[in-house]
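quick one, two chains, predict together pls
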Amino acid sequence: MTDRVDHRVRDDRSPLDPAVLAGAESFARSWATAVIGSSYVPMTRAEVAQHLQDLTEMLVEALYASPFRTAPGYEIGSRLVDAHFTGTDTLGRTVQLLGDDLLGELGAAGDERLQSRLAALQGALSAGYARALRERTLAEQEAIRAAVLDARDQAEAMLRASEARFRAMFTEAAIGIGIADIEGRILDVNQALQDMLGFSVEEMRQYNVRDLMHPEDAGSVWRLYDQLIAGECDHYRAEKRFHRADGEQVWTHLTLSLVRDDHGEPQYQVAMIEDVTDRHLLQNRLRYQALHDPLTGLPNRALFLERLGRVFSNRAKHARAGLCYLDLDGFKVINDSLGHDTGDQLLVEVGRRLDHSVSGEGKLVARMGGDEFVILVEGSSGEQDIVDVAERVLTELEAPIRIAGHELSVSASIGIVERQLSSTTSADLMRDADITLYWAKADGKARWALYDPERNAREVARFTLSATMPRALERGEFYVEYQPLVRLEDSTVTGVEALVRWQHPEFGRLAPDRFIELAEETGLIVPLGRWVLRKACEEARRWLVEFGDAAPFVSVNLAVRQSRDPELVRDVKRILDECALPPHHLQLELTESAIMGTADEPLEALRALCDMGVRIAIDDFGTGYSNLAYLKHLPVHELKIAGSFMEGLRAENEEDPVDSQIVATLVQLAHALSLGVTAEGVETPAQAARLLRLGCDTGQGWFFARPGPPENIDSLLRGDL
Amino acid sequence: MMGERADTNRGEQVERPQWAPGDIDLERPSVARVWDYLLGGAHNFAADRAVAEKTLEMMPEVRAGALQHRAFLRRAVRYLVGRGVRQFLDLGSGIPTVGNVHEIAQAVQPAAKVVYVDLDPVAVAHSRSLLDGNEQVNVLQADVRDPASVLASPEVNDLLDFDEPIAVLMIAVLHFVPDEEDPLGILAGYRDRLVPGSFLALSHAGFEADEETPEIRAARRVYERSVTRTTLRNSAEFTKLFEGFELVEPGVVRLPAWRPEGPDDEGIADRAFPGFAAVGRKA
């Protein structure tokens, strides 16, 4: 009560009274301690204390003011919030502290009037604080919401900007871009794609992606499309053709990509389409150039082989095909004599005629190079089909070709192969056609030849023989047999013919007719002949040593090529010398053609041999066309009448008068020229008797003895038989 | 701060391109707004407040902790202005509550320049509206973990002069950067652009080994589950972040103990405060 009186007494005393100020200062410190940490205020502790000191003084002034107003309390609450004393505990602690301590600190603890005023100020402070906090909170909420809106605006602006960028990219892209949903409905296409295909967006939107199918599309294009739509692949690239609105075609590189939604499910498909028509056409042109002969415009070897390969790659079970391999006859002569330009024009015309006569589905005419052409006929039904083609071509070529004032007649040789594809390969077909062309040439040109497997087998065998012959000679597979030459009047063996044989490891014993011709072709006849000559001379020398005067001479065959060998005379001389064989113990047999058809050199060789003392015989006399006048001057000692004339003398009871007369005439002719006569092919006693009667000197044949090893001759000479 | 980035599902590597706007989802708490709430602000939404309240329930001292980081910022900026620094790069600046860097700095040195950087688009938008017209302040929306793009931005380059010292501030930021994101590399990215005499001020949640109480661990789990992952570091690990800087007095200390302004400041600075602070100077 006293306190209350006290306060009442000091009713009009100034609030700036030092004691009051000190109390206020003390209260401000307690206040700072109570509220610091309840909120974040951007002030140092001292600054906080000063701030609260100011507020305390304001409060104290209000407490004592007259008239009493609560507005300062309201102001203080508001300023607390302004200083960011916004923590939830700040107000509670402040109000409590005011009630508990302020009047005590001011020394007016019991003053009821001040208590009442303080209560009013506490209320006003709370209201001011609440109002300010509410405003601050609302302001901050508004600010943060505005910030959210700003941020969203910003984000949307960026989104719009990025959409605009994408739209621009889509619109302006030089590459065609189209978007469709997963059902294939076209949603949007850019300008480039509209231009490329010639449809507007509206028109394109009428289409489904599947409507853009092109008959030439590779199967993979749509297989991959199905996989993409099913979500099994995310993109693929393909070459694809599109139909343009104007009916033209566009070649494109297509890249199709799948766009998935947030859950990974297929949502859209995006096509990027690049027009490569120009490139494609260029490639086509380059490809055409690479696959065609620039001169004739016909497909070239490369295209032909490609087509042939394709024929073989997708063949049906019984499919057949045929080839005509064609080569102009004598083209080189035309080229060399009339010039390449004329030759080229000729080839152009031939190409045109071939193309003209062979046109049609499944047929291809190609120029293989030079004057070689080839015709491929797919799906033939038999050899006759191809023969028909070949004959048509030959007929077509018959008409003369006029070039630069020249009337040129050309002919061609054609090799034909036709067979079931499953039984052959493209390489075999080509090789056999080539071989057959060679046959057509060899058989006389201006004709076709049909592939003949047997003829081929023979040729292969011949080839095999000729290829193995050199080694056979080295390995000693050859040997020599001897057949006696018998004087008819007393059956004395005067000579023996050396006959070469080949003991072939694969084909067995081979007679000369199987390999001599080959040896002539390959030139091996020279070393082979030299070997036979030496072998025979060695035997002759042995007989000479063993049988003395009774020893026979050896008769050795000399092939045409050998007779023209410049080393012949030297070879013969050396062998005779090395064997120490007197030359008259050697007889060389040549065919009529070898002697007659020769120029001077071989003849000189024969003369040299003759002069040396070697006997010369004409083999198979009467089968060639001997120049009888010439015969007189030849260095020849003996005529051997061909065995074919002996047929008519064969039978025991009757003889063919013509053959008989021929043999008689030949004998007379020989004798007239002072030549000896040997009859070959004597097989019966009747023949021997007749020949003796006709005056023939010597006989050779099975009647006397078959060819055999030299020991057989030994026996004969010893008279064992 | 980096709440926005925490949304992205790293497992799927769904990195947005630079220009793509992030979505603004008010249902998802943001570090910046939770922080604002803890500091007594109202720049926040229900989701932010729910997380903050739940964290406070587990560990009431979190609020005081937030206040301490903010108070350290104030003391550090004042100290730096006192050392003559005129340029500040505030990385992970958050919602501009009261007592922002430019307010503190410009109160003493009106010429001070500040660039605020945050990834949170809302925090950035708010900062911009608040700072509109202040030509000595810029705001940049960027990921502070990408120094190259921050330093290359016009917001930074138009305002700051890299030939003069700059103070880089990362207040309560680096505990959101785990080791695998290479915090040292990030800091080096900034440091290498600074001239000698520049400063780095860091505050960081953490404590010495074995100091984590079950309550802190529980609170951290709440925070990590709903907002973003935190990496607490001890004083040794925190000290390593100052590679290339010389620590100024008093070195690495508990947050309240860094240059307290009065004996009372230190009252709260009991040795167990879960966070460290330090300022370093580039030699």
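The two ends of chain A are 189 Å apart (CA to CA).
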